[in-house]
């Protein structure tokens, strides 16, 4: 077996991307000269590093459990990754396993062979194994890893799987006017899928290839599409890419504009409500307001001291931005300094969102906290601590004053790497529901347009749909790859999701 350092670096780089550490991946890619390697990323399957590690663990376990005569006895407890790379731990497990095999062959007075556990104590560890069950006694089945009521599981036949992307699909978003679903992938393309109600045909797809000029010709950028957003009318789609360019596309797949000013990957991009400006955030520590009609940079803001990770419009000409520098700035067009700055997080700030009225700003961070800010004060209104790991994203419900659902309370959802989603009553600053059915990090949450349901997507490959009133699980679907993004169509009848295995899928809730 042989491998090059370039191959190792690329697989580590891809793992960082898939895990959501986009700015870390960018830095690692620069330092390891990924762009200078001749590796075709489209040929590397998702989760390559994890697959290699799993195979390595299986090989190490096989060394322990397979005897010289080729017979195998199973381990009573799976080997951890740290144990597998620690020679003493492997040796201890080998000794314990050999003692276990001998004890089973020759049971002593300390062990019973009547369907109970046999425990063998060595100098360093105690290993317990399930003894053989007598003939005629049924063997209990292993517990399910996810306790989901069978009646709410959505069968695979009820999902429409959209295949075409050649790498992981990081993002997806519904058109606000029609059932067009956009997706963005590591294969350097975005795609527009026509999901209109026409059961007789396979959904059409438009491929939006992200190309750059090289040697007088257009060639694929080979960079991830990191962000996308529809304008308010649904006739234009903006995309942001790791190649440093933002692009504007028509719904027929025509490239309308290429926006070039950032020096490095774009991490986030948003249209304002009026549809005349686009806002972007980049690894170059800057945010830019673009004129959508001309494609020109209207103003570039250079207030962060580290990569800008997220942006969100407050009004049609003011916005907030957050960064790995732990700071949040509120800026306004044609003003040359922030109109407000918020400090309080102790680690990088992953996402920010204004409430529907633009009065409260929510932020979440790797410091495991969720904070609520107001333009009326310098310190946070609420400092919400409940998650046990990093909080990746947040979303406000489309409810309360100033929304189409004014008689429902405003709530905030947070998604964390601790595998949970929490729903918060922001007015009281309390958690009202903790949603716990996921078993891996949760990367995305999205409210239905009426605010009654919340969709969540996790790397456990599941999309869960919850009642926001009761916190109960209403529907559950398990796909074939880790879920990066979930989104609802404008009518609240369909949920789209994008996955690490290159698939996009749509759940039509009217068919359930």
UniProtKB/TrEMBL annotation:
The keyword Membrane does not apply. It comes from Papilio xuthus. It is found in: Nucleus. GO terms for cellular component: histone deacetylase complex. Belongs to the WD repeat EBI family. It comes from the Eukaryota. The keyword Transmembrane helix does not apply. Pfam families: LisH, WD40. The lineage of its organism: Eukaryota, Metazoa, Ecdysozoa, Arthropoda, Hexapoda. Keywords: Nucleus, Repeat, Ubl conjugation pathway, WD repeat. InterPro entries: Ebi-like, LisH, WD40/YVTN_repeat-like_dom_sf, WD40_PAC1, WD40_repeat_CS, WD40_repeat_dom_sf, WD40_rpt. One of its GO terms (molecular function) is transcription corepressor activity. This is F-box-like/WD repeat-containing protein TBL1XR1. GO terms for biological process: regulation of transcription by RNA polymerase II. Signal peptide: none annotated. Residues 95-114 are annotated as: Disordered. WD repeats lie at residues 162-203, 225-249, 259-300, 342-383, 384-434, 435-476.
